[in-house]
């Protein structure tokens, strides 16, 4: 697998992957994270592509099998300024992943994408819905720590904020 920036030519495939992910989440006890609003909308994905913040995971055959949003910086996600029922463990600049999804065709898509994002600066934050046990388990497996509750603009559901930090070894870039 490899990661590359999403192009306009990938848009139809990316939207197929998000449709698959909405169905997968609903079938696994998480119908409210993206389902009711058909999140994410194509207009947002187009904006992510235009801003160079949308990435795809491509398999050995060149097929797009996953997608996610990634950015990094001192205030990479303004919604993370306020965290309730806890605290972030590290206030240094960080990377953030949103809208991560795979097409279910291969094992390890989520792991590969999150490890790639973490390798960019050695400090990563992400949030997920309280009913998204699949993502919560993946994050815990990869060494992320639950830090508290955050809210996002898409809806009024609280999100579980996770963070992974402390391993800025060889190969990682500064945020």
Q: Can you describe this structure in just a few lines?
A:
The protein has 175 residues and is an alpha+beta fold. It is 27% helix and 27% strand.
Question: Can you tell me about this structure?
Answer:
This protein is α+β, with helices and mostly antiparallel strands. It contains four helices and seven strands. The protein has helices at residues 11-27, 42-50, 109-121, 133-141, and strands at residues 2-5, 54-58, 64-73, 94-102, 123-129, 145-150, 159-165. A seven-stranded mixed sheet has the order 1-2-3-4-5-7-6. Strand 2 and strand 3 form a beta hairpin. The longest helix has 17 residues, at 11-27. The two termini are 24 Å apart. The model has no long low-confidence stretch (mean pLDDT 92).
Question: Top keywords for this entry?
Answer:
175 residues, alpha+beta, 4 helices
Structural topology:
Elements lengths: L1 E4 L5 H17 L14 H9 L3 E5 L5 E10 L20 E9 L6 H13 L1 E7 L3 H9 L3 E6 L8 E7 L10
Parallel strand pairs: 4-5
Antiparallel strand pairs: 1-2, 2-3, 3-4, 5-7, 6-7
Q: Spans of 5+ residues with little confidence (pLDDT < 50)?
A: none
Structural class: alpha+beta
Distance between the termini: 24 Å
Helix content: 25-40%
Tally of contiguous helical segments: 4
Overall mean pLDDT score? 92
Arrangement of strands in the largest sheet:
1-2-3-4-5-7-6
Number of strands: 7
What's the Cα radius of gyration?
A: 15 Å
Shape: globular
Helix and strand run: EHHEEEHEHEE
Largest sheet: 7 strands, mixed
Strand content: 25-35%
């Amino acid at each position: 697998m490899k990661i590359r920036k999403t192009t306009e030519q990938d848009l139809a495939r990316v939207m197929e992957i998000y449709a698959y992910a909405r169905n997968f989440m609903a079938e696994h006890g998480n119908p409210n994270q993206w389902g009711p609003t058909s999140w994410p909308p194509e207009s947002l994905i187009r904006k992510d592509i235009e801003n160079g913040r949308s990435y795809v995971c491509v398999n050995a055959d060149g097929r797009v099998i996953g997608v996610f949003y990634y950015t990094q910086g001192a205030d990479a996600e303004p919604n993370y300024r306020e965290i309730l029922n806890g605290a972030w463990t590290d206030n240094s600049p960080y990377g953030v992943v949103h809208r991560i999804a795979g097409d279910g065709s291969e094992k390890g898509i989520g792991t590969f994408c999150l490890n790639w994002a973490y390798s960019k600066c050695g400090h990563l934050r992400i949030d997920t819905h309280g009913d998204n046990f699949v993502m919560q388990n993946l994050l815990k497996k990869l060494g992320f720590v639950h830090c508290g509750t955050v809210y996002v603009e898409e809806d009024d559901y609280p999100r579980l904020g996770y963070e992974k930090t402390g391993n800025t070894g060889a190969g990682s870039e500064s945020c």
